[in-house]
Amino acid sequence: MRAFFMRPMKKSLRILEISIPHATQAGTLQAAMHLPKKIAESGFNTVFVLPWMKVNCALSLSPYAVTDYLDVNDTLGCLDDARQWIKQCHSAGLRVVLDMPLNHTSPEHHWTINDGWYCTDEHGSKLSPSGTEWNDVVQLNHTNTAVVKACEDVLRFWLHQGIDGFRFDAASFISDAVLEGWITFAQGLSRQELLFWCDGEEYKRSRPFFNGFLHHEAIAIARQNLAEWERRALQVSDDAIFYLTNHDTLHAGKCPLDEWPESYHHMRNLLEASANDVLLSWSDWQNPSTRYSFMLEK
């Protein structure tokens, strides 16, 4: 396996997005204990881990339909395994960013017994996030201070396990005041600068409390005008994270070579030489002709 990102450059993030169920044949944290060293030797300095919290696979295979934020899903291992894996990453010089879905939970999350913790219709039925087809989750009510505090407890818990930052899933559904409060709270618990990511340049520009964003707009530009994408990818940005594929594009059924059939290798070489923050998906790293769904069913 060839090394990536070995050129001298600014203090850029070289990120590998990893789904633990797909990282090894067994799909467990114990089976993935050898990976941090390999990942670091390939030139990465950060891993972005898709949600590994507890879910009810009989109800939904999505790792974003969380039933318990403070534990690891049984199919992946246990909390001690997660702690050990994080330690292996730190020993290899990798920072660990956890994908954190605090906008919604599974309808079987234990929080659902609490009155006023979820958005409901006129009949009292809990609602899915507005405008989505996410029928396996229900929308948290972030105007309830108890919900906001409970989410702070989740962030504190994972920081105490060694996590170095979070990507806030579905952040656009949550008010700026709540998000900024969470980030200020979490940063106050750490002596190091934590990583806080959102999705999209337009969303990030009016929310400086995030220090990074997945550059979804760049992908849209690349599909229309490759030369303009090249210009933007080479123009140094302090907070944009460029990528070619991620869990959403792979889940849609396109492997890297399907997504960019004529330009993949050219685009990838350009990103590897870029001074910007860059994310590679698991398929980019392992084999660009492969695809995977982020669902827990392998």
Task: Describe the fold and architecture.
This protein is an alpha/beta fold and 298 residues long. It has a single domain (14-103, 146-286), classed as TIM Barrel (Alpha-Beta Barrel). The protein has helices at residues 20-23, 35-41, 79-91, 145-160, 176-187, 201-205, 216-224, 226-234, 247-251, 256-259, 264-273, 282-286; strands at residues 14-18, 46-49, 53-55, 66-72, 95-100, 104-105, 138-139, 165-168, 195-199, 212-214, 240-243, 277-280. It has an eight-stranded parallel barrel. It has a two-stranded antiparallel ribbon with strand order 3-4. Strands 6-7 form a two-stranded antiparallel sheet. Helix 2 (35-41) packs parallel to helix 3 and helix 4 (145-160) runs parallel beside helix 5 (176-187). The protein is globular. Residues 5-10 have low confidence and may be disordered.
